[in-house]
Design brief:
The structure is a homodimer of 339-residue chains. Chain A contains twelve helices and twelve strands. Chain A has 339 residues and is of the alpha/beta class. Chain A has three domains: 45 residues, lambda repressor-like DNA-binding domains (434 Repressor (Amino-terminal Domain)), CATH 1.10.260.40; 132 residues, Rossmann fold; 131 residues, Response regulator (Rossmann fold, 3-Layer(aba) Sandwich), CATH 3.40.50. A six-stranded parallel sheet of chain A has the order 2-1-3-4-5-11, sandwiched between helices. A four-stranded parallel sheet of chain A has the order 7-6-8-9, sandwiched between helices. In chain A, strand 1, helix 5 and strand 2 form a beta-alpha-beta unit. In chain A, helix 1 packs across helix 3 and helix 10 packs across helix 11. The longest helix of chain A is centred in the C-terminal third of the chain and has 18 residues. The interface between A and B is large, with 52 and 52 residues. The first copy, chain A, binds a DNA duplex (16 and 16 nucleotides) through helix 2 and helix 4.
Chain lengths: 339, 339
Amino acid sequence: MTLKDIAEKAGVSMMTVSNVINGKTERVSAKTMDKVNQIIDECGYTPNLNARSLTNKTSNIIGLIIPADSPSSDENFLENPYTSTMIGIIERELRQNGYFVMVRSVFKGTDITSLLQNWNVDGMIFLNPTLQEYLPQLLKNSSCPIAIFDSHLEIDGLINVCSNDRKGLYLSTKYLINHGHTRIAFIADYENNHLLTERYLGYRQALEECGIPYRPEYIYPFSPSYEDGIKAGKKLVSDCLGITAVVTTADICAIGIIEGARLSGYRIPIDLSVIGYDNLKIDQYTSPKLTSISQNMQQKALMATRLLLEKIRTGQTSLPSPVIMDVEIVERQSAISLF
Amino acid sequence: MTLKDIAEKAGVSMMTVSNVINGKTERVSAKTMDKVNQIIDECGYTPNLNARSLTNKTSNIIGLIIPADSPSSDENFLENPYTSTMIGIIERELRQNGYFVMVRSVFKGTDITSLLQNWNVDGMIFLNPTLQEYLPQLLKNSSCPIAIFDSHLEIDGLINVCSNDRKGLYLSTKYLINHGHTRIAFIADYENNHLLTERYLGYRQALEECGIPYRPEYIYPFSPSYEDGIKAGKKLVSDCLGITAVVTTADICAIGIIEGARLSGYRIPIDLSVIGYDNLKIDQYTSPKLTSISQNMQQKALMATRLLLEKIRTGQTSLPSPVIMDVEIVERQSAISLF
DNA sequence: CTGAAAGCGCTTACAG
DNA sequence: CTGAAAGCGCTTACAG
């Protein structure tokens, strides 16, 4: 069933049918409009978007770029609840605006370029800041708007939606201080990682603001994974530094820390308060339930999507990048008062 | 940069370039081939797949169908770790075979039809059996192969990859029996749900096989969610039926049950053994770590994807549907021996 | 308000 | 081994 078929059935030209479909009411009489629409409904006709893309030089496809799990590692980025929730929110918003979502995992820059050229995608969203090295070139070569999350790059034309990472750790550290803690460990290997460094600085800012001396030995440079959390938890206990509380940069890591400290004999939260980061769903399923920092992923995803659509339609965005989204602390049971 | 441009640069016809790109070595001399390929590389040319789809009546796009969260509910299917992990595995396999993945959440049958007609998708995978009512019609109207998971429908031509659900609950129940339990509760509102009914039958089969009488009062018809798990856990404790162990049909529910039973004063697993279902990542993060039934999602996803590709290429599949995948029990800490 | 024609970028018989 | 031409299904100036 094609435009031509409909046109023949209706006894009009293809062009008229096209105008009806595209709602150009000023170019078709109401009578013709009704007749054609009726036939379209009867036949269950839907336009071939490949053909439309070809003429329009636009596709209504948005590419969602995720880093491919390298063959060497076992990592699957879609197992990360963060990533998949983002996709869900973005897909929904795009769909409601008439767009289609092509999900593509990607190793290197040329993968992205070819996706773009292959399908004439109207825009791209990078779910992770992992592939940013390709962005400057990409933005130069293409007129297609691009959005990314949590990038520290400030490239002209790039839509960049971040969280207030510094505030995040500031909030968790401050929370502990307000509850009487002064010996607070920071667990993350923040060096050479812009995002984690921001969080580290938030930790320091809270300490400083409250006149609590910074102690280098309270910094545990473990990666924010579950496994490393366990190691950190064990080490922290065996170090006997009198630490009463811990802040970290990922819920998974916090859960590991709790496990590690427990295995070494601590009771949580009695002997050690722990605050995570991300406010994942699973925070409710652990015991104690995990106090955490919420990034408000829903709003982040919507913000990036809407700015992208805005840029596709108008050529610009109403908010300059980077857009910094607020964070907040979500109180649960893993951090308690010393008073 | 188009075929035409390349042809001009190379001083050959468009057709020759097309043949080079499509590797039709028998139609182009090696010399021409090399020359054209070199120019293609230099220019970084990638073919426009919209145009190709238009002529070929095939798109290399596979539609991944997920149920849209109804406006009324707050459910986001992509928050479900099961769904997103599947997408990750499927996308990777399809990509490696030269296909593109369009993710589409869908409310009703016509949404699917239009996706299909709009983009000429070469195949579709339904991530959930939620939308099966549309399948008979869809399969009739389209020549596009369709794969689904866990459907109880046996429609001719439908690729259907299931798990051995009955065995799943048989295994968890049997495990408990082997560890001395006889008062084992089953928690799930299985009625009117084919999949849950299968699991229920597995529970009964294990009891029967071991000569343990079936007790209707040990069946708790709660839905397999975290919230309902909590309710079930509380009720189970207050009922005082002497139950020492529980099997259920979802890890989330099992975690809820543990929480509910705990809130009512039970210690887990001392007072109550619990076995979940799905072997989610989070099973390792709870305490006690959750014993569960593994569906082997990786293999399920790969099986469906490969059968789909096979059908696209050859018109048939080497395995008849439904394909039943094996399940296994993963021992952790939430179920203990009474001996 | 309506139509005939050209063109988007590719592929595929059909000739040579 | 190579090419000219038609066609996939749509939209967009351009005429009328």
